[in-house]
Amino acid sequence: MQNQHELYEKARKRTKQKKRLYFHFIVFVIGSIFLTVANKILGYGNDFFADWYIIAIFIWAFLFVIHFVNVFITNRFFGKDWERTHTDKILAKHDKKFVKLEKNILKEQQLQEKTTAHQKSKQCITIIAAAAENNEIGKDNKLIWHLSNDLKRFKRLTSGHHIIMGRKTFESFPKALPNRTNIIITRDKNYKAENAIVTHSLEEALNLTKDDSQPFIIGGGEIYKQALTIAHRIELTKVHHSFEADTYFPELNKSWTEIAREDCLKDETHKYNYSFITYERI
């Protein structure tokens, strides 16, 4: 019934438009004849300027053409159907944006739930890394500097805790690091390692650390990137120098704030200036 009513109203409106157009045309024709007769036969307007009525007829014809175009072209091609089609296109674009936004919100919620779950267990998941001025952390699966104080700090902080790392990071060590529970993340289902636990995802690795108040994530670049979404703290050694590298530490966003810093100058055993920086998630 609603559709029938809309069709009826549309037909009635179009009929009125065409009726006005025909009436306009009849008035235009009669008016043009009247102006011509008044000027040529009765002599009205001769003292005004020659052929003034022709200008009047042209103006009237211009208005008639506008009316004609509006009724038969504009309303036909840019009427309600055109408006509805383009409105539907715009709404479809907005729907795609909303779907994308909902997916992002859902992803954020899932990450937040994972973070909250670890917070409830009173864990402080900590990323520990050393990065140069442009976030370089290594090349060819090797460190590109040697700072003994950084190694001592790493040992002091991580001893007695679980350390989580990628396969390449583990293979860069001569053997599993002592006094720590070594956990490896790899896609290789058949991978074996001596004195280490093999897992296949960051979530699986963290599930093994529930009894540890502060498990450490020690690299490499891809593991760091995944861990940034759930970690609570970052212990970063910033080496104030630039190096050629093929592995980088991810950029930190505004959710991380610096809470402690110790700046150290180079000396006979340390070739570069460096800083020990602690970040926590806001």
In brief:
Helix content is 48%, strand content 19%.
Describe this structure in words.
This protein has 282 residues and is an alpha/beta fold. The protein is 48% helix and 19% strand. It contains 7 helices and 10 strands. It has helices at residues 2-40, 52-77, 80-120, 148-158, 167-171, 202-207, 221-227, and strands spanning 126-132, 136-138, 162-166, 181-185, 197-199, 216-219, 233-239, 247-248, 256-264, 274-281. The chain has an 8-stranded mixed sheet with strand order 5-4-3-6-1-7-10-9, with helices on both faces. Helix 5 (167-171) links the parallel strand 3 (162-166) and strand 4. Helix 1 (2-40) packs antiparallel against helix 2 (52-77). The longest helix is centred in the middle third of the chain and has 41 residues, at 80-120. The mean pLDDT is 82.
Layout of SSEs?
Elements (H helix, E strand, L loop, with lengths): L1 H39 L11 H26 L2 H41 L5 E7 L3 E3 L9 H11 L3 E5 H5 L9 E5 L11 E3 L2 H6 L8 E4 L1 H7 L5 E7 L7 E2 L7 E9 L9 E8 L1
Parallel strand pairs: 1-6, 1-7, 3-4, 3-6, 4-5
Antiparallel strand pairs: 2-8, 7-10, 9-10
Helix pairs in contact: 1-2
Q: H/E element string? A: HHHEEHEHEEHEHEEEE
Morphology: elongated
Task: Tell me what portion of residues adopts beta-strand conformation.
Answer: 15-25%
Number of helices: 7
> Uncertain regions: pLDDT < 50 for 5+ in a row?
none
List keywords for this structure.
7 helices, single chain, eight-stranded mixed beta sheet, alpha/beta, two-stranded antiparallel ribbon, 282 residues, 48% helix
